Amino acid sequence: MPKTWFITGASRGFGREWTIAALERGDTVAATARDPRTLDDLVARFGDKVLPLQLDVTDRDAVVAAVQRAHDRFGALDVVVNNAGYGQFGMVEEVSEAEARAQFDTNVFGALFVTQAALPFLRAQGSGHVLQVSSIGGISAFPNIGIYNASKWALEAFSQSLAAEVADFGIKVTIIEPGAYSTDWGGASAQHATPNPAYDAFREKAAEQRKARAGNPGDPLATREAVLAVVDAEEPPLRVFFGHGPLAIATRDYESRLATWREWEPLSITAQGTTG
């Protein structure tokens, strides 16, 4: 059966690739972008199978209206993809309050608003699948993108809670955690804090670490079949990596955490105190 998708940030990167993947197999898509003219070629190619919507996900009222319009047009919402987001670069000390709030407004609250707007429709129909686009930075953390990491950790946390809350309604939740890909995440769409000269030497070191971590970036086009496999799975995963690098990073990180927790467990136990 064809599915109806609602995809934010559909003008480029993963959002665009997944929009095309869905449309090419006969699904319908409500595709959102800050500038819907970037979707004109898809409208010309796929006609009324795609509904282009102008949307700034930080505007809650606009989100509610866009989700309502998509449901009114297609009569259902099967797959809701929270893809809109960007990377905020800067050491933690360098990031301004305005930059930190803007990062959370888009990456966390934008996804929250879309999820909340879609859930009444998904509950009413007794089905649906919410895809949250996180990052390997959503389970680990790296220098010079601490606020970005924080936003993705927040996304992961509320999404894991959400998965338990909506399971009885027949709604699935999947957190997609990509590694490095050839998108403009670190380019045109990125924001950069004003550098503090105190971090100049470490900034170069962090850049080298990021370059080594990225290796050979993945091709976003290759994620098309992967995302279709996720949404078509009878029992989709709560979390799934995209790319070959994230599993090694996660393994090292979690093994290190476990080792530290075990080393300090005697202290943890003393912190429990005694009960009468």
Kindly name the structural category. Answer: alpha/beta
**Helix and strand element order:** EHEHEHEEHEHEEHHEHH
Could you say what the CATH architecture is? 3-Layer(aba) Sandwich
CATH top level assignment:
Alpha Beta
Gyration radius, to the nearest Å? 20 Å
Instruction: Please tally the β strands and state the result.
Output: 9
Helix/strand layout:
Elements lengths: L3 E4 L5 H12 L3 E6 L6 H7 L3 E5 L5 H15 L4 E4 L5 E2 L7 H29 L2 E6 L12 H21 L4 E8 L12 E2 L7 H15 L8 H10 L6 E4 L3 H18 L1 H6 L6
Parallel strand pairs: 1-2, 1-4, 2-3, 4-6, 5-8, 6-7, 7-9
Helix pairs in contact: 1-7, 3-4, 4-5
Short description:
This protein has helices at residues 13-24, 40-46, 60-74, 97-125, 146-166, 200-214, 223-232, 246-263, 265-270, and strands at residues 4-7, 28-33, 50-54, 79-82, 88-89, 128-133, 171-178, 191-192, 239-242.
What does this structure look like?
α1 (13-24) packs across α7 (223-232), α3 runs parallel beside α4 (97-125) and α4 (97-125) packs parallel to α5 (146-166). β1, α1 and β2 form a beta-alpha-beta unit. The chain contains nine helices and nine strands. It has helices spanning 13-24, 40-46, 60-74, 97-125, 146-166, 200-214, 223-232, 246-263, 265-270, and strands spanning 4-7, 28-33, 50-54, 79-82, 88-89, 128-133, 171-178, 191-192, 239-242. It has a single domain (4-248), classed as Rossmann fold (3-Layer(aba) Sandwich). The chain has 276 residues and is an alpha/beta fold. The strands form two sheets. The chain has a seven-stranded parallel sheet, with helices on both faces. Strands 5-8 form a two-stranded parallel sheet.
